[in-house]
Amino acid sequence: MYRSKSGIEKKLAQAKYVFNQLSKFEGRIFVNGGVDEKTGSHPLVVLLSSFAAHGRSVFQYACKEAKQGRKQQAYERFVSRSPIVGFFKRLRDIDIHECPPGTHTTIAASSPISRPDPKTGTATGEPVKLCVESPDNPNGPEDGNARVIITTTITRRIEVTTDVINQLKAQGRSDLVDAAQKGEPLYKAVECEGEQDLFRLCRRYLTVMESFVEYGTEHGFIT
Known about the structure:
- By secondary structure, this protein is an alpha+beta fold.
- It has one domain.
- Helices cover 48% and strands 16% of the residues.
- It has 7 helices and 7 strands.
- It has helices at residues 5-22, 43-68, 72-80, 83-97, 162-170, 174-181, 198-218, and strands at 29-30, 102-109, 113-117, 122-125, 132-133, 148-158, 186-189.
- Strands 2-6-7 form a 3-stranded antiparallel sheet. The protein has a two-stranded parallel sheet with strand order 1-5. Strands 3-4 form a two-stranded antiparallel sheet.
- It is globular.
């Protein structure tokens, strides 16, 4: 009979390793949209795809043993109650069958007013420092981007239809309409239970993986 524990432990360890590499991109801003100039690849997307693949294997290995050991009901009970598992399964399926996922970074900053002028009604804010790096730099800036809120989301490619074009026109997004008409791909952010942040989603998935291994061991389909 197939036993999954050894393979699952290896895949879980690989997922943790990849997440450690992936988390180095958190809270950072990169030149050229984060694309590596030498290869044309997007390191963060490469790591995200790898993380999703290793995580998916954890569940696939367990599913095989659960089927053989007639424990599939217990397996399905856990998976069906974990939206994050379904989220990363869909992400992995899209990566395999359609196209790689994408990422999108937004930057927000606050600047305290330091020199208000009551005569002119104008005010000057304190300068905000942004550190923009090369994606091949393994370490973050020394002082970071402490006064900046940087959010990275996962995106997926969408099919451009007449309805999509009309919706973009109604929103006044002529830039996206022009891009779509030129045949350029369009992407939209994806979320799980209201969460869009890439790094928080990955942390949640990793936590659920660890809980799943404990659950599967207790219920006899990870041996």
